[in-house]
Specification:
6 helices, alpha/beta, binds zinc ion, globular, 207 residues, 6-stranded mixed β-sheet, Metallo-beta-lactamase, Chain A
């Protein structure tokens, strides 16, 4: 089962994914742990997965870990970049005292995490940030700020690279060859085939 919460000033999507046996994961607990914790009551949260090291995707991770005992998983690159306020963008909020999560699990492209019956496949998609990842679970694809409905993540922030982002989406996501449901880090869900056809960043929808 999938629950979506839109959290924080930038309305980042936090996804709670659970199986039928009471296991689950939380992807991108961006803010407001007090809103997430009641939603995972009675669920064994095995992992908190952070798609990338921008503050709007992780500032509730530490309190959520304390409440659930989950392990925090993020890419090797982000495990370091998250500590740099210029890269986490916490420098935008002088004085905001967010707790910076430590990675319990450092993810690499192709890694698989399991939580109960859930199988979560890690896909490295640099471009929006150096360490950005997408997460595939069955017919669902969680894209963080890599791919949005009819758009892609911005590339003007530290570690961003427009060519790398387009290349990541083209070679790592558009080659999956199945029409997965896409759950982005902001805004509404879409589907992979729909974005391959309609996303203007890949020549779509100009018709
Ligand atoms: Zn971001």
């Amino acid at each position: 089962m999938l629950k979506t919460l839109s959290l924080g000033p930038l309305c980042a999507n936090c996804y709670i994914l659970t199986d039928d046996r009471g296991h689950g994961v939380v992807i991108d607990p961006g803010a407001s742990a007090w809103k997430i914790i009641p939603e995972v009551k009675g669920v064994k949260i095995d992992y908190i997965i952070i798609t990338h090291s921008h503050f709007d995707h992780f500032t509730a991770a530490v309190p959520l870990k304390k409440a659930t005992g989950a392990l925090i998983a993020m890419s090797e690159t982000d495990a370091e970049d998250i500590k740099d306020p210029n890269k986490s963008l916490l420098c935008w909020f002088d004085g905001m005292n967010a707790e910076i999560p430590e990675a319990d699990v450092r993810l690499k492209d192709g890694d698989v995490l399991t939580a109960g019956d859930l199988r979560l496949e890690i896909i490295a998609t640099p471009g929006h940030s150096k360490g950005g990842i997408c997460v595939r679970c069955g017919k669902m694809l969680f894209t963080g700020d890599t791919l949005f409905r009819r758009s892609v993540g911005r590339t003007d922030l530290p570690g961003g690279d427009p060519d790398e982002l387009i290349n990541s989406v083209r070679t790592k996501l558009f080659t999956i060859g199945e029409d997965l449901a896409v759950y982005p880090g902001h805004d509404v869900p879409t589907s992979l085939f729909e974005e391959m056809r309609e996303n203007p960043f890949f020549g779509g929808g100009a018709g």
